[in-house]
Amino acid sequence: MQQPTSGANQRIARIAAHLHPPTLQSSGLGRMDCRAKGGSPGFKVAVLGAAGGIGQPLAMLMKINPLVSVLHLYDVVNTPGVTADISHMDTNAVVRGFLGQQQLEDALTGMDIVIIPAGVPRKPGMTRDDLFNINAGIVKTLCEGIAKCCPKAIVNLISNPVNSTVPIAAEVFKKVGTYDPKRLLGVTMLDVVRANTFVAEVLGLDPREVDVPVVGGHAGVTILPLLSQVKPSCSLTPTEIDYLTDRIQNGGTEVVEAKTGAGSATLSMAYAAAKFADACLRGLRGDAGVIECAYVASTVTELPFFASKVRLGRAGIEEIYSLGPLNEYERAGLEKAKKELAGSIQKGVSFVRK
């Protein structure tokens, strides 16, 4: 049997390095050399929680994104299988898997964007606050890794309750002196995606042609769709406004109940997260006019964190927009949202400071 040539050995080592990054150092193949043949320059993205219900479809969608050149998939279980599976897709991004906390630093080093869907999902009867004690600790640990290994990365935080986990991340970064509020974004895009879809159904339009600003937070009454600002301009009846507001605020519960204990909103969340990450990537590339809603450090209200429209750029958040004119219904909703949000924010801050 003919022995493999040195060129063949190099190709085999290159493939193995994609799937088993801890062996990179001993193989003599440097991490930065591990590049798909003909691969074009792009951005390095890590998904933390990549083997979960959101993480797997999100990882697949990021593998498809042409702006991603390197995709790191991290989780505490099952990452090798997910990595092997996704790495077979014939798109440009090089995929590497990382398993367990001992490989977290390797997963994060050099990343431009870190997306965090890690944590336990909601189950029937469970509120986002019920998730807090478990997911708060997970987010804290992951953010400590980010602060150490890629402090300049843009962080897209999905782990619920987002109203509390974003303040947790901010406090972790503040403790070690790496906090940049422009680079920390809570992903509320699913609320916008739902709002666009539900409003389009009522109006008989293509959801891709509808734009509904959704402000406040990412749970229950903190989710405030500004239906007076829908584009294209439209006139909704009070009954339609009540119906739409309630459905947008409780969209997550609708999915949890429909899945009857088998999970929460994973596929639509992965879609929304990939859509938001793409906006961040386009901002990093320098595209003009990239505007999306996100939950960020803000002075739009008296609260330290609030979701509103932001313009994304090379530094993360380039501009935070005001809420614009609100009608009486929305002003009342804003007061309810702020009251609920204040407690959630304090809960996150206290978790790190205790």
Quick tags:
44% helix; Malate dehydrogenase 1 (Peroxisomal); 12 helices; 354 residues; three-stranded antiparallel β-sheet; six-stranded parallel β-sheet; alpha/beta
Task: Describe the protein.
The protein has 354 residues and is an alpha/beta fold. The protein has 12 helices and 11 strands. It has helices at 6-19, 24-27, 55-64, 79-87, 104-108, 132-149, 162-176, 189-203, 238-249, 251-258, 267-285, 328-353, and strands spanning 43-48, 68-75, 94-99, 113-116, 154-157, 184-186, 214-216, 223-225, 290-297, 305-313, 316-320. The strands form 3 sheets. The protein has a 6-stranded parallel beta sheet, sandwiched between helices. The protein has a 3-stranded antiparallel beta sheet with strand order 9-10-11. Strands 7-8 form a two-stranded antiparallel ribbon. Helix 6 (132-149) runs parallel beside helix 7. The model is unreliable at 22-39 (pLDDT under 50).
Give a brief outline of the structure:
With 354 residues, the protein is α/β, with parallel strands linked by helices. It is built from 12 helices and 11 strands.
